[in-house]
Design the sequence.
């Protein structure tokens, strides 16, 4: 009986299963990278919104009043909302300012805080 030097059907099927698993893992990794890039862009834009608000408060050189105020901002073609909270500190010459940024569906994206003093 003469034997051919080719692969058996089982060897070919095992090789196909290995390739399918490798491709599945690659697709899953690519999807995770895409989601991470999207999240990074969203957080970066939300941070720009929060930093712009805090910079505007500093540039007006007014001591912020204690309380809450809504905020809205548009960055990179996306709309963001949220709240700005000003609270007292133990030293009456300083106030804590918290900015909570949410996406257009109201989900929290970023919180940023700073301390502002009297000018």
Sequence:
């Amino acid at each position: 009986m003469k034997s051919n030097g080719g692969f058996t059907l089982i060897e070919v099927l095992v090789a196909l299963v290995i390739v399918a698993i490798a491709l599945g893992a690659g697709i899953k990794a690519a999807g995770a990278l895409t989601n991470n890039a999207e999240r990074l862009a969203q957080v970066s834009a939300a941070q720009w919104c929060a930093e712009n608000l805090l910079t505007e408060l500093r540039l007006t050189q007014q001591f912020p009043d204690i309380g809450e105020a809504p905020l809205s901002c548009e960055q990179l073609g996306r709309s963001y909302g949220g709240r700005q909270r000003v609270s007292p500190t133990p030293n009456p010459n300083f106030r804590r300012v918290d900015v909570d940024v949410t996406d257009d569906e109201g989900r929290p994206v970023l919180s940023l805080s700073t301390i502002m003093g009297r000018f």
